[in-house]
Amino acid sequence: MLYTTLTDTELVELLRHQDRLAFSEIFNRHWGHLYVHALKMLKDEDEAKDIVQDVFTSLWTKSGSYQILSSLQAYLFGCVRHRVLNYLRDKNTRNTYTDLFSIFLQHQHNAVLEKIEEKELLDAINAVIESLPEKMKRVFELSRKEFLTHKEISEKLNISEKTVKRQISNALSILKTHINKPENMILVLFLSSFK
Q1: Which of 95, 119, 145 is the last residue of a domain?
Q2: Could you list the mean pLDDT of each consecutive 10-residue stretch along the chain, which spans 195 residues?
Q3: Cβ pair 139, 153 in contact under 8 A
Q4: From which residue to which does the signal peptide run (predicted)?
Q5: Domain boundary among 40, 66, 95
Q6: Residue 50's CATH number
């Protein structure tokens, strides 16, 4: 039997009975058109080849069970189109997840860096506070850590409010001198906003 002379309908009937030569003829007859169709949609030669190969693999493995209601060519083109659309949908989903994951990682990285910078800044401020003269340190801590007013500090330490104000002002000047990066000044200014 000369398979090249058979119609698609006759080849499909032979394929239902697992006829390898019928399958080879279908493959040779339609592979090129299907590949060009997939390539136009995908713009990727390797992916187009893979998809057409998958369509033919599926055609062979299901040869005894499928029903082709239209022409073989229309059926194969539909299979390729369906697989291409699935591939593109999955690829877009993967790209979206990859993009979102990259954004998440960048955000996490930035958050970690901010935490490290914040800790380093607080450590630097605490080191400067620890180096203050004892009386100035005590006044500053009562003001900024325990949030006492100048009057409350003066009563607690038995010193004048004027002395309290001067000690806090001197402590802030020392802090500003030691923590002199512009981005760190926000915290120093915040500390100096309490009266």
Answers
A1: 95
A2: 87 89 92 91 90 92 74 89 87 72 70 73 82 91 85 92 90 79 53 50
A3: yes
A4: none
A5: 95
A6: 1.10.1740.10
